[in-house]
Amino acid sequence: MDKHSSLQGRTNSASYDRPRVVVRFREGVHLADRPDLGEQIENTGIGPWRRLLAQFPDLKLSPVFTVLKSDDLQELQRRAAAMDTSYRPADFNTFYYVDAPPETDLIELVRTLLRWNSVQTAYIDQGGPDPAVNAANDPRSVNQGYLDPSPDGIDAEYAWTFTGGDGAGQRFIDLERGWTLNHEDLAAHGATLLHGTLLDTSRAHGTAVLGEICAVDNATGCVGIAPNIASVDVVSFHGSTRPNAIIAAITSLAFGDTLLLEAQVALNGTALLGPIEAYDAEYEAIRLATALGIIVVEAGGNGTNNGGTPALNMDTYTTLGGQAILHRDPGNPQFRDSGAIIVTAATSAAPHTRLAYGPHGKRIDCYAWAQNINTCSSNDAGSTTGYTSGFSGTSGASPIVTGAALAVQGRAQAQLGYRLSPRQMRAVLSDPATGTLPSAAETTQIRVMPNLRKIFDTFFNAAPDVYLRDFVGDSGLPHTGAISASPDIILRPTAVAAPQASFGAGSGTENNAGLGYKAEAGQDNYLYVRVLNQGGANAVNVQATVYWAPVATLITPDLWNLVGTTVLPNVPTGEQLTVSNALVWAKAGIPAPGHYCFVGLVGTSGDPAPGPADFLNFDNFRRFIRENNNVTWRNFNVENNDPDVDDPTVPRGFKALAFLAPGAPDRARNMALEVVARLPEGARALLEVPLVYFEMLRERRQYGRVKIDSERRVAYLALNASGRTAFGEVPFPAKSRMAMRLLVEIPEQYRERTFQVYARQLFEREEIGRVTWQLAPRGEGN
Questions:
Q1: pLDDT digit string (tens) for 17-53?
Q2: What is the signed CA dihedral for 394, 400, 404, 409, rounded to 10 degrees?
Q3: What angle do CA 193, 375, 207 make, to 5 degrees?
Q4: Which pTM was predicted?
Q5: What angle do CA 556, 482, 458 make, to 5 degrees?
Q6: I need a labelling partner for 706 at 20 to 30 A (CA). Which of 30, 125, 205, 746 fits?
């Protein structure tokens, strides 16, 4: 028998789905929203549609993504691209279903479409049954051992002893086809079906999934891993499609929320089942979710015929087009990372081994119990009192990992004050250092089962806690002080022979914020990073990454430019100031001489640093700059206090201090500026602003008559030279960069002294960035 003959003559009315083809046209191919899609393809030269119909009669085309209007989808993608700079928006309008009569050879249809120059890819869309395995032959003790300490379970019981470790404050959506939402152990959550229709024959499956994750602690039945979750809802792809159900879920989730994908698909028209991201449309929908900061957990699929062998080997799998899309390897350009956490199936007994049908390979992030799972259940009639001790499959494993994610996110929000991004969450849950490794006899790659005790002790508690100070006196704890005056990023025009002796503990310079110099153009410059560790263990292989940005009151990641990364082999506990070796800022990367803002990120495997993409969500950015000690800004500039004599745009006797006042990266927001000067008697200070900013102030009756330079399109606002000058809120457009200058005149008799002035930007009365200038006699670091 031909290897794909099982699809020929097969009816398109399987109880769980009907096989059909998805075609994805190349970027730029657009069809009008009319019934004559095939004729448009023929008449515009996209492809030989009539010849295709002659070979495969009665084909029908319909768009894949229909749950949102095109404009609304594009708005989601715009937000995602702003939040995740690695996200490349797909054109959802290029995806079409091709429905065919039951006798159609779908594999040959795919191969024919792949020969069209206008087609990026084509594949058979054949949904699988709910990814659970019949456990009738697997009777085992009826307990919830997956809640127990490692190596047996994930130790949810330990997580419950910490604020947030029970999922408090978290939101989650389950995607599949059926549930009994008024089950006695679930009803208290008030879950709602947000999209699609309920399939009665899938009630038992969905009810079991929710029971593992969030069965309430009510002295009845069982208890979920995250029983005190704040919100749970569901979306169904019954009466809809998987891509549309994912998009529907996205519209109801925010950064840090969790989406579980309880579905599997047939691969290449065979009986082998795998994760739904193997299909392009599902992949693009998932990638949109993770780019928006949504944690996605995905069942890996249950092998051949939903529980048989062979299992999916993700390292060797290829599409009908020959693409190794699931092989996560640096040398594989065909791999595509959706950002989801993919889960495989393992034994309930420790040491855990992969079950025969469980997928494996480098793309697997976590394994968990996939047999003997005690949880809620139901029946086709919607029983509200059912339970089972035999739930199984990657359907059973994925909720365990989802519950772990909700516990970790709850603890992160409670302790750290912010939520982890999908990248951070996947790194934490799949870390071999904090997870339960499979049996030494396991020869395939299935990564780890999360161990919440180790994660909580290491990531949240007893791990190294390396930090950079935001200002002299910063203790590494959340604060309301300055956030842009770090003494721990030091720029020098020449290399320092012994940086630890010069800048580290015992050097006498530990609390000196004025060690940095102006950048020298035309030569290499040298950056040194000072790191402290307030954690319970020494930090090894600490990575310190530095970015430069123009001097600005708000340094969002769209302004960052990478200088490089250096490694500190050991930062001892006990807050011993440790200095990196020189990080070379190559002359080719220095745009001009002068001052720059520097952003520093430090982290270890047990205390990972955030990445720039994590800051593009503005709410996350605000929490990070206050509450995450792995990041700091040095926006502290030492200038001589002599007047500028060579710049005709500077008023006579004044010193010009240039900076940008940017907008947020995502959307326009009302913000305010404030200048605080500590200048001597007789000093004067002005703020030079664009006319557009002055006009916004005047419209809001925040400023009256001022001096205006119409030729340069600027206004000069008088400042209090020995106190605070506050400007009210005005709308700062998204990604705007208003160029301003602080103009300061120091009386000649005081120019041998040192003074300080700063400008800061506020959002909702909270400081989100500042620039500080130290005006010193010529030669003191300037």
A1: 689 999 999 999 999 989 999 999 999 999 999 999 9
A2: 70
A3: 15
A4: 0.65
A5: 75
A6: 746
